[in-house]
Every structure is written in structure tokens, then in C-alpha cells.
Amino acid sequence: MTIKYTKDHEWVRVEGDVGTVGVSDHAQHQLGDVVFVELPDVGRQLTQGKEAAVVESVKAASDVFAPVSGEVIEANADLENDPSLVNAGAETTGWFFKLRLSNPSELDGLMDEASYKAFVEGQA
Amino acid sequence: MTEASESPKKTPLHSLHLELKGKMVPFAGYDMPVQYPLGILKEHQHTRAKAGLFDVSHMGQVRLTGEDPAAALESLVPGDIKGLARGRMRYTLFLNEQGGILDDLMVTNAGDHLFLVVNAARKDHDVAHMRERLKGKAEVELLDDLALMALQGPEAAAVLGRFIPEAATMKFMSYLPATFNGIPVIITRSGYTGEDGYEISCDKSDAETIARALLAEDEVEAIGLGARDSLRLEAGLCLYGHDIDETTTPVEAGLEWALSKRRREEGGFPGYAIIKDQLANGAPRRRVGLQPEGRQPAREHTDVCDADGHKIGEVTSGGFGPTASAPVAMGYVDCAHAAVGTPVQLMVRGKPLAAKVAAMPFVPQRYYRG
User: Fold this and answer.
1) B36 to chain A: nearest residue by CA?
2) What is the dihedral of CA B40, B45, B51, B55, to 10 degrees?
3) What was the pLDDT predicted at B188?
């Protein structure tokens, strides 16, 4: 199992050829109170770096991009009833969707946890 | 030089906002707190439940003097200013010759002068407009040395009453010069959240002392512009530059209540012919509340379509209403679709979101009626 981050503040946790995707804890802090998440339909093909979901806070809508390419195999139904899960557990219960990776080598271009932490601190 | 590269202005409470860890954003040329660590949702709910303190010092405070400033101002606005009793205030609008709204403002009869509060982004425009149009009739003074705070919420009267006992029994939309712990202030029982509350005007050198004294009270939290926006949207109140602007008339905006009976009959304000016609025959479009089904918000500039997918209007303010616990929006639609209950579609990111025209306010207003 490995977890990787993008510079757009998404994370993907990979188990076998399945990746679970969400936004980072840093991102949920920046977004503020999440009130709605628009998730991709199961079966949709996502392309790395392209729009995959939308997260709406009280104030604004923000795009979430696919950290890696692949087919969506599950969306987190719990977010429909309780979008605040994104604030409460951005990197755990607040995950967005799972996809089957079509090009695992894309992971090589993402940051590991330590690099991402340094990246966020560098932005501050 | 672009606007972004100009250094934003600071209100007298700027260092307090930083100390309170406000998240600062540029707004109308000022560096303002959009939220504090509590977050927009909780700040909103706190204001509805107890009392919130807002820094609104970016707004323009203006003194109008002259032989008859009320008569002079009536040449620019449709409100009954001459009929304002001393110590009373009223919401009104600067209009252009087409009946379009140049700004919305509060006007108070302060006895020997009129006291105006105008929008931050419009204050320079409004002052220039008045100086040009009221030349020889009234003197216009922008009161740059003043700060302005709003204390809003059901506990506001109890809190302010501890410092200014007369505040607790003031009438809604009235004005009172007073002292706050010995500091001279002007308070009005007014605000823009739909809740009971006050605006407190003071010298900018006294603002922090007053703010700290209010924040030390158990019921009071500092509230940012984010919650101010969601509160006023739930209350069905217009935000200038979004829900009203130079292209919207008071009739289109559903602000007929700001057109007093005498002025409707007598006229004598810009755009009167157009507004009189719209009052008699209706306006082509109308500001309405919009209630999406489900939880997905529809934001400003979202297209509003009829059941067949034809565009009939646009959202001018939209978001999530923390008290309504649902998405809320307002916008303009062709008058044929303006009736409450009319089903519409909101085109959010290319997909139709089912919604209906809704009555406003989304949350009942709780102004103090004595």
C-alpha cells in the first residue's frame, strides 16, 4: 500500500490496481466547511490531471482532479448524506471515489507524504 | 497598475483581525476577514443563535448638511427622506435616469444633518455623484475618521444593553448618540443579517477598545464576510453589484417597499417615468428566491431555465444556507416565471438541477418590533 499526493492537493492510496482518491487534510482546511460533493459516476474513465469531482464549501465550488488515470469503480455514498466527512476525515472516511488504475506508472510523478508535507510548507 | 498590485486599505480593526487569526482576503479595496478559525458555517449559526460582531468599517459613512439636505437628497433617491422623523432611518437607493440602481444605502435623520451609510465599493462614486448633483444645495462629507461595527443576533440587545442601557429598548431603524464605557458612539438598531441588532459608529481610534469589550462578552464571536454573505442571502437581502446594479430597477429587484407612497405619486427622482410605468404595468423580469432540490448549491451566474430548457434568467447570489440547512439562491427570471412554486432548472456545470421559485426570506427576519 502506498499513498501519493498531487500539487493540487488530491491524494490517492493504492492497493493492488485500485486507487482510493480524496483531497488532503491541508485542502479541507483551505476549503472550509464542505456542504456538497459532486462525485463521478461509476464506469467513467478519468484522465490524470483532468476534472474528476467538485467540492462545494459554503463559499465556493472547487474542482478536484484525477491524480491518476483509470475507471471509476465506486463513489463514496456516505458523502451524499454527510459532506462534512471531508472536513472530519479528509484522508480517511472522507474519501471521494475508487478507480482501477489504467497507467500505474503515473504514480511515479506524484509526491510521497514527506515531499507533499514539504511542498505545503513551502507554499505557506 | 492593476487592482491586485495596489496595496489594500486596512480598517481600524485590521490588527485585531490578524490577532484573532482571521483569514484575510481583498474585498472592495480593503484587506478583510472572510472568516475566523470558527469557520463560516459555525459563525453563521452563532450569529443566528447568539450575537456576532462584524467589522463593516470599509463601508462609507457620509454626512449631508445644508439648508434642507432631505429635499436635496430626494432629488437622487425614491425614498421619503423629508418624512423621516428625527432619529429615524430608512433604506433607499441612488437611481440613474433609466431607473437603474447606482447604490443602496441607509439614511438617518440626525437632526442637523443626514447620516448616510453606503457600500464600500461605491462610496467614492456616491460622494462624487452627490457633490456633482447636489452642488449648491448640500455639503457632502465622507467621514473617513469613523469606524463601523455591526452587532447582530438575538442576544445583541442584551449584550449592548450592558454598556448602553437605552440600546435595549430602541426601536428598529432608529438612531441614538450614546456613550460606550465613556466613549462617544452613534448606534442604530439596524443591520443586514435578518436578525435583530445594531450598527455602532465611533472614532476609528476607539474601535478596537469597543470591539474587544464586546468580544469579551460570552455571547459574542467575531464573524467574517463569508457568514455575513450567507446570512444576508438567507434573509433575502440584496448585495450591490450582484443582486442589484445599474441595469436593475427597484421594481425588477422587488424593492417596491423602498418606494414610498408620496414619492410614487410625486416623482421627482431619476428614472421616475420608467419606474412609474413598471409599477403600473409590471417589469419584464423580477428578482426571486430559488430553492434547488437536494443539497447541491447553485452559484452566481448560473443560468436559470424553464422546464423546456429555455433560458429565462440567471442566479445573482447562491450558496448553502446554514440555517435553512439547504442550498439557497436568488436571481432574476422573466416575469412569466416569477410566481412562487414555479418549477425551474438551474444549469450547474452543464447539468440541469431541479429547483423552484421560492418565497423569500428563506429564514424569517427577526427584527425588533418593540
Assistant:
1) A32
2) 20
3) 98
pLDDT tens digit sequence for B121-169: 999 999 999 999 999 999 999 999 999 999 999 999 999 999 999 999 9
CB contact under 8 Å between B296 and A80, yes or no, is no
Q: Is residue B94 within 8 Å of residue B126, measured between CB atoms?
A: yes
Residue B210 has phi, psi (to 5 degrees) of -65, -45
| ipTM attached to this prediction | 0.86
pTM: 0.94
Listed in sequence order, the residues at least 6 apart from B257 whose beta carbon sits closer than 8 Å to its beta carbon are none
Condensed to tens digits (0 to 9), the pLDDT of residues A63-107 reads 999 999 999 999 999 999 899 999 999 999 999 999 999 999 999
Closest residue in A to B317 (Cα) is A59
State the nearest Cα–Cα gap between A32 and chain B, in angstroms: 6
Residues in Cβ contact with B334 at an 8 Å cutoff, skipping those fewer than 6 apart: B284, B285, B312, B313
For residue A41 the three cell numbers come to 459516476
- Among A37, A55, A59, the residue to mutate for chain B (most B Cβ within 10 A): A59
Please judge whether A36 and B44 are an interchain contact, meaning their C-beta atoms are less than 8 angstroms apart: no
Tell me the C-alpha distance between B305 and B297, whole Å: 16
